[in-house]
């Protein structure tokens, strides 16, 4: 503080010195910095840290094409830091964040199949329905006999994992027992880019067969009245027959997995893409990842 005389008024005026003013500004600056730090630390207590998920995956079919899609989805998850434990008949080897449990001895492997016989089997829309229904229930039988998987589903699923991912099947809905009676998020994978007969289980609804082709229909898009009518009748017929057949199996040969409560999936990773697939309604829980299993192109060797 300094004292000066005002020549005009003839009085003594008290003024703050420059050093005092600077000190006052420094103190205010320090208080502002401290306040900002306290506010930042207080705000950070409400921010939840990002955690990786522990995922249980189950490959439900011993078909290499099915596994190629599932493997690519699991690879994307592990590359992003998630920890995956997978039951699979196709063993690639463990790696960081990835643990395999071999089931190749329990499944009848679908490898090197005769393409001529497969074309004959799937040449019409009715013959393959019963075959795929039996195939789905066979997968349920195989999985239900795996003691290690049963122990996880019964005792460790809620405590050791954060989500479960599997392929729900094409016609039979029995495979949904894997995620039944659980509070964990359920994720489905669909390697088949066409509409299957488990849509109601997977999506909670079915596409309109008058506008969207069903599985094995010979036209990608039903355009004419005859095609739309035929597609609708085929869908109703196969849906009714397969549901009735599965109902009889549940009554005559009831299995433990038939008593499970279906849990709707939180997400569905489907092998479709808007570039290569026809336009159709997409449910809100569907994530299109078509082509995720494709490898980067390479140059054609000169010796070919």
From TrEMBL:
Keyword terms of this UniProt record: Glycosyltransferase, Transferase
Molecular function terms from GO: UDP-glycosyltransferase activity
Gene3D superfamilies in the cross-refs: Glycogen Phosphorylase B (3.40.50.2000)
InterPro entries to which the protein is assigned, alphabetical: UDP-glycosyltransferase, UDP_glucos_trans
Domain of life: Eukaryota
Family as reported in the entry's similarity comment: Belongs to the UDP-glycosyltransferase family.
Protein name: UDP-glucuronosyltransferase 2B20-like isoform X1
């Amino acid at each position: 503080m300094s004292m000066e005389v005002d020549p005009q008024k003839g009085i003594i005026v008290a003024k703050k010195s420059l050093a005092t003013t600077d000190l006052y500004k420094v103190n205010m600056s320090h208080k502002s910095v401290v306040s900002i730090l306290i506010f930042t630390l207080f705000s950070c207590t409400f921010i939840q840290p990002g955690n990786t998920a522990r995922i249980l995956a189950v490959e439900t079919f011993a078909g290499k094409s099915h596994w190629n899609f599932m493997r690519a989805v699991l690879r994307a998850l592990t590359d992003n830091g998630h920890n995956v434990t997978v039951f699979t008949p196709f063993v690639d080897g463990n790696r960081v964040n990835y643990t395999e449990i071999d089931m190749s001895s329990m499944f009848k492997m679908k490898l090197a199949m005769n393409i001529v016989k497969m074309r004959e089997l799937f040449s019409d829309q009715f013959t393959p329905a019963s075959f795929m229904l039996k195939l789905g229930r066979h997968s349920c039988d195989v999985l239900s006999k795996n003691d290690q998987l049963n122990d996880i589903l019964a005792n460790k699923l809620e405590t050791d994992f954060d989500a479960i991912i599997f392929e729900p099947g094409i016609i039979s809905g029995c495979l949904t027992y894997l995620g039944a009676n659980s509070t964990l998020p359920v994720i489905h994978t669909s390697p088949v880019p066409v509409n299957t007969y488990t849509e109601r289980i997977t999506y909670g609804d079915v596409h309109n067969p008058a506008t969207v082709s069903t599985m094995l229909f010979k036209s990608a898009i039903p355009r004419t009245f005859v095609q739309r009518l035929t597609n609708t009748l085929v869908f109703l017929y196969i849906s009714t027959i397969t549901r009735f057949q599965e109902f009889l199996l549940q009554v005559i040969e009831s299995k433990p997995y038939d008593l499970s409560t279906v849990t709707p999936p939180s997400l569905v990773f489907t092998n479709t893409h808007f570039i290569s697939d026809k336009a159709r309604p997409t449910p809100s829980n569907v994530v299109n990842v078509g082509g995720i299993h494709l490898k980067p192109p390479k140059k054609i060797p000169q010796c070919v």
